[in-house]
Amino acid sequence: MDMSQYKALFLSESREYLRSIAEQVVALEQSPAERSAVDALFRGAHSLKGMAASMEYGDVVVVAHGMEDLMARVRDGALPFDAGVADLLLEGVDLIDALLDDVEQERPSTLPTGDYAQRLAIYTPARPKASREVQAEPEPTHPDAAAPPAAEAEKAKESAGEAGGTVRVKTELLDHLINLTGELVTNKQRLLNIGRELASPALDDAVSETAKLLRALHDEVMKVRLMPFEAISDRFQRSVRSVAKKSGKEIHFELTGREIGLDRGMLEQLVDPLNHILRNAVDHGIEESGERERAGKPARGTVWLAVTRDRDRIQITVRDDGRGMEPKAMIEAAIAKGVLSPEEGELLSPDQALMLSCIPGFSTAKEVTDISGRGVGMDAVNAAIQKLGGTLGIDSEPGRGTTITLRLPLTIAIIHALVVQIGQVKAAIPVNAVQRTVELSRGQIETMGKRQMFQLDGEPIPLLSLNRVLGLPLGRFPDGILPLFVTQAKGRRVGIVVDRLLGQHELFVKQLGRPLSKMAGVAGGATLGDGEIVAILDLAGLL
């Protein structure tokens, strides 16, 4: 019997099992006596073995069978669930994941499955000794919630849907639906332009009604494209566990909002930024146990990761109760590195000083480890979030901890953008990166050193010309009024002067092909209602 037609389904369900197993392993380290979780791990490995056997993937069978036998020893009381068991099971998850990649790419595997299975078979727990282990997964686990995902998840989906059923759809079809919806958004703008030219009330009404229906269609398509945050959350649990174990710290990790849905295209792009923030929090944010106790804190530090949704916005918060960040030290380090002049340093507020950590190469860590360094790579994190149309904020209190907040749009396919004229071309800036627009008279411009500034809300704001940044001819302003928008760069607000502000538009974002995709500062392209193509600028990369 030809089983190749079932390969895609096997890969999808197997990866769901792997994600569930990894989450349950980390959770069991907090509550090793949780019988339902132990049973669920055993069933998960058993189901993986059975599925792989039916598809005749022998290497996967060997690994899953070894994991099943190990959990059988734990279930029967012959073996305690300790850090060694957890390490072996997580190693097995990684090994099967690599084997699944080989299956997907139809290439022979050279992974040492036999060696792994032998280590499982002969594993015995080490003698008890003083050790510190990470604890994770704080959310109370209902016995039924620990079950493998295949049957239980489908039942939950069926009970949630009005029609009482679910259907697996290829991601290519969802992407095609998004593309069609985006093209309709562009065509709507074209109809609006035609309506204004013809001055037809009847046409305006029809287009207005079509726009409402199109918005409803877009919202429904986006719901189908959303995936729960838990699709990537197990990676963060394991990352925190790994860094805590390597640094010898006691960490309690709390994760909430795993059920919140995010755009499928956004989820994978969030993995690296969030991993970096979490690793920083554990490695350099949380103090050693002795230092915490001397400061009157519990020996065990806590890191929180929370995901919430407010209408069409997603907020992701990473918070720790560690040593925090000192704004004054940040400013002094920036001056010492030549990033700021002493005069500029005096003008920075504490919040702006904390954002200095997002400048490339900036760090105040006393030592940079092979795990992370507070501030090292935060520029890449900030750039990645801005490329997704989001913003990053930092709040910290010395001795109390640090909070990093990411605010993101629900979708990255259709965005609201400010369209501007620069020279002979038009460009679009996602409105999430625009704090406000200003029309500035020449008399309001001040000169401080070599920089031109203007006052906004009592704060001196430096001016930059977008024409100059892009290498275009500088604009002329015969009426003495300079149009600009205010954004954030290098930890402080900056005014970006353009030739004209053309208003806000709803745009369907299209990815650029080579070689345009390699251009720094360009996040994609879009078509306006009149058919003109505009580049969508990535200000973080541009500035």
Describe this structure in words.
The chain has 543 residues and is an alpha+beta fold. The protein folds into four domains: 121 residues, Four Helix Bundle (Hemerythrin (Met), subunit A); 57 residues; 181 residues, Heat Shock Protein 90 (2-Layer Sandwich), CATH 3.30.565.10; 129 residues, CheA-289, Domain 4 (OB fold (Dihydrolipoamide Acetyltransferase, E2P), Beta Barrel). The protein has 17 helices and 18 strands. The strands form four sheets. The chain has a six-stranded mixed β-sheet with strand order 10-14-15-13-12-11. Helix 1 packs antiparallel against helix 2, helix 3 packs antiparallel against helix 4 and helix 7 packs antiparallel against helix 8. The longest helix has 28 residues. It is globular and about 85 Å long.
Strand content: 15-25%
For CATH, the homologous superfamily of the largest domain is named as Histidine kinase-like ATPase, C-terminal domain
Low-confidence parts = 129-164, 368-376
The CATH architecture assignment of the largest domain turns out to be 2-Layer Sandwich
Query: How many alpha or pi helices?
Result: 17
Q: Structural class of the secondary elements?
A: alpha+beta
What's the helical proportion of residues?
40-55%
Overall number of strands? 18
Gross geometry:
globular
